[in-house]
Amino acid sequence: MKRFFSNKNFTVGFILSAVVIWVAAISLIWTPYDGNKMNARDRLQGPSWQHPLGTDQYGRDTLSRVMVGAVNSIIVGLVTVAIGLTLGVLLGLISAYYGKLVDESIMRFSDFLFGFPAVLTAILITSILGPSMINAMLAIGIFYIPVFARLTRAVSMSVWEREYIAAARACGSGELAIVWHHVLPNILSPLLIQGTIQFAVAILAEAGLSYLGLGTQPPHASWGRMLNEAQTFMSLSPWMAVFPGLAIAWAVLGFNLLGDGLRDTLDPKMVRVR
User: Fold this and answer.
1) CATH value at residue 43
2) Cα separation of 47 and 54, whole Å?
3) Domain annotation covers residue 6
4) How many domains does the chain have?
5) 216: how many CB neighbours lie within 10 A of its CB?
6) How many CA atoms lie less than 13 Å away from 39 in the CB half-sphere?
7) 171 in any annotated domain
8) Which tens digits make up the pLDDT trace of 201-210?
9) 51 is in which domain, residue-wise?
10) How far apart are CA 248 and CA 193, in angstroms?
11) Residue 92 pLDDT more than 80?
12) Which end is more exposed in the chain, N or C (fewer Cβ atoms within 10 Å of the end residue's Cβ)?
């Protein structure tokens, strides 16, 4: 842990990310107000002791909605990265092991998926299944599959050429045992780094999709949806956009710095020779 926290990027990213996770955890059991409860008498109030981050056009407490929005962002990040990581790693391992026609087919499939950005995929999926948070997660997760597949293929191909793989085969280990005991442990570091960075990208993508009306649907709180609703009242209540925007920036910056810190610490090429 001393090695990790000696890296400034990791330390700052860990603190920022921990705050987001802590706020999300607290919101599961307590928020100052019900985030979906409307109160017309308190609409468009500025920050005060009663409502530290003000209220929106329906009188809902902005702080409570920002806290609940943190939960949605973390869920989206976890689910989308899990989808991309699971399927992407599987395809990457198969591609690196079999090579030739199988490798070419999987890589061309990855190129095909890369041709459809997350927003375009979300529009396609929601046009068929309807806009929702689940469909947005599905779209982002599909977009992540080729990201992890290409990374897994690249690092796995170098691992398969190592001497300890030949030694394991000479000792009679099966191919699946070699993958589980030797290949996967040696590619975990780049996958962990990539997963952390893509977690931040997923939060930003979900906010963008919700802003477009393709993600989390009202009345459920979402940072992107809050920005969408705030744009009509920018001249009257600018704080409606400021605080969800700061929440998005805080979370994305935190997980990006955390990923950079992990890369600097775990990647042998990035470690300074002392």
Assistant:
1) 1.10.3720.10
2) 4
3) yes
4) 1
5) 28
6) 15
7) yes
8) 999 888 888 8
9) 2-266
10) 20
11) yes
12) C
